[in-house]
Amino acid sequence: MIELSASQPFAGLHLPFSHGATRLSAIVPARMTMIAPFPGKTEALVKLLGGFPAPGEVFEPHLRLVWAGREQALAFGEGLPDGLETCASLNDQSDSWAGAILEGEDAKAVLARLVAMDLRALPAPSSARTMLGHLPLLLVKESEAEFQLWTYRSMAGSLKNDLDQAMRSVAARRAVT
Amino acid sequence: MRLPCPCCGWRDLREFTCIGAADYLERPTADAPPEAWDAYLHVRDNPAGPARELWYHDPCGTWLVVERDTVMHAVTGSRAVEDAQ
Ligand SMILES: [Zn+2]
User: Fold this and answer.
1) Is the pLDDT of residue A177 over 80?
2) Is the pLDDT of residue A121 over 90?
3) Are residues A72 and A126 in the same domain?
4) What is the reported pLDDT for B70?
């Protein structure tokens, strides 16, 4: 009988690593559920979940809820309330995402090379759907020096490569100024 | 060029896909005459000036109607299709 073993999205990609003042580390996957409210069911959903994030919102009434697209939110962790399936489409996406944490005082400078958004203007915590280079990106700003970067799992290698290069460039620039 | 997404705020052009004139939203009924379907599918104005266009914000999945000036490149408004109809 074949023994299947779970592998990590960034397996073989040599995370964590640092360049200069920035560090990139992998997030160990946990349960992630995409919640998309059925039309007209948002009120019932809010009662069960304790809230539903507006665009860009991140909060934790019980489970951590991250706005993840138009009328969509990702719930992190186990224990969705019973009956939720009657007011929203629930989609287990735990295996579909690759998440990494970029942290350090130069994290914003690194992301400025790849993300066409002013990340200084975002509150913390908050989320945004955007792009990192050519990759689709769900960005969660945790603080001024910590960002969660989520892309589709098949693109983990590209995410690492793009960030590796930007981190090296920012570190090199720091070294000569 | 930057465009305002009703969900996400101002974003760079590279995050959007332009579908074409907002005429695409006025679909004829199934029993409309062939001329109406022909116009819907193929006949477009080519305005030099204010235009209403259908755009898609790829990262968040919002369809939007953008009002912009094809001469000035000024973007004067945008609404989610869901709210504009
Ligand atoms: Zn958007």
Assistant:
1) no
2) yes
3) no
4) 92
**pTM listed for this prediction:** 0.91
Nearest CA among B65, B70, B82, B75 for reference residue B22: B65
What CA–CA distance (Å, rounded) separates A159 from A114? 10
Cα(B57) to centroid(ligand 1), Å? 5
Ligand 1 centroid vs A65 CA: distance in angstroms? 18
**A116, A117, A129 member nearest B60 (Cβ):** A129
- Cβ-defined contact of B59 to A117 (cutoff 8 Å): no
A21 and A101 together in one domain: yes
What's B43's domain CATH number? 3.30.2270.10
* ipTM for the whole complex: 0.87
Closest residue on chain B to A67 (Cα): B60
Chosen domain end from A40, A64, A92: A92
Give me the domain span that covers residue B69: 2-83
For residue A156, give Cα distances in angstroms to A10, A20, B27: 6, 22, 41
Average predicted confidence (pLDDT) for chain B: 93
Cα angle value A70/A72/A76 (rounded, 5°): 145
Nearest to A131 among B59, B61, B62 (CB): B59
Of B12, B59, B80, the CB nearest to A129: B59
Domains contained in chain A, number: 2
Clarify whether residues A23 and A56 are in a common domain: no
The count of domains in chain B is 1
